[in-house]
Amino acid sequence: MPGRLKSDLSGKRPNRRTGEVAIRRKAEEICEWISVAMKYLRDDINKMEGYVPGEQPQEAGYLKLNTNENPFPPSPRVKEIFDEFLVSGGLRLYPHPLGGELRKAISELTGHPEEGIVCGNGSDDILAMIMRACGKYDQRVILTYPSYSLYRVLCQIYGLEYKEYDLVAEKDFSLPKELYVARGSLLFLSVPNAPTGTLFATADIERLISGFPGVVVLDEAYIDFAERDHLALLAKYENLLIARTLSKGYSLASLRIGYALGHPELIAGLLKVKDSYNLNALAISVGAAALRDQQHMQRNRDAVVRERQRLAGELRGMGFTVYPSDANFLLVATPKADEIYARLKGRRVLIRYFKARRLDECLRITVGSAKDNDLLLQALKELKKEKTF
């Protein structure tokens, strides 16, 4: 009846006064939280927006193509390391503070001396070390946009001024000419760039490094899927740092293994500011084993690249604009990006939608296995039949 309170599922009629009291108490609780934050946190931390990672579903049954994980398992040698740790009792001991065997394996793979290598808890840890050691409060940090949003967040955390330069999006998100005359203590460049997949020309990268007065950081998180890397530049430029991860190409995202390569004196500065035991012993041993199984990594890498090409062709055939990519994901443009994202999620298919400037009509899709990609394409075909796009 109109004007009467409806019963809840238990059959009991809600108490309006009790509800009002609960709302008031909740409001008071929120005010108390705000009060505590304003009292104890820095003003800039209160005002900033933290980094927002890709959605992690809380239940099984999702096709997860939103956070750029490798669809294939890591090297079989990884299981051997796990088994050895369970038997040896190694978990009770502190890990090697510099990465030990992992640092050695990185040196073997890259040809770079161990004293020019620092290991970290994922490449995010490496990026934070670089900010702490090289970011200067009287100079800007130079960034591009769109790119990995954690760079901006780290600048805010450490109280560093930054300036973003928009990539040129007419064709392939190339570097803007203004970037070559930018000045600061640090310049971060994601290569291939996330979330666009762009692999900038080596000549353009070298021009940036040679003309920049501070440290240039090439974030090569997705380099295992690219046609070339930039290791050769380390011998030419003392102001270059290359950051890498084992999360993508080596299928070890959950163990958080990253590293940086650079001039030994620069690396010595990073070692001063890193956490004392920033990488656990299991990750050190597993990472070293994975790096030494290049045959397995290359086989998985080649499968991802083949699927990237196939998926790009299929998406173009559906009418999407697909940007060139040298990573394990594709950035696609469509006028109904937000609706497609929501409709796919309703079908338990997760991709990434960025509600952000210049990306509000874009979707980022992780390249999965052939089966994963077939399921995605089938879902998109069904949405197209329903005239979603």
* Share in β-strands: 5-15%
In helices, the fraction of residues equals 25-40%
The domain count comes to: 2
DSSP helical segment count: 12
The class by helix and strand makeup works out as alpha/beta
CATH evolutionary superfamily of the largest domain: Type I PLP-dependent aspartate aminotransferase-like (Major domain)
CATH topology of the largest domain: Aspartate Aminotransferase, domain 2
* Quantity of strands, as a count: 13
Which blocks of ≥5 consecutive residues have pLDDT under 50?
1-12
Using only C-alpha atoms, the radius of gyration works out to 24 Å
Identify the CATH architecture of the largest domain: 3-Layer(aba) Sandwich
Q: SSE string, helix = H, strand = E?
A: HHEHHEHEHEEHEEEHHHEEHEEEH
- What value does the average pLDDT take? 91
How far is it from the N-terminal to the C-terminal residue, by CA?
43 Å
Question: So what's the CATH class of the largest domain?
Answer: Alpha Beta
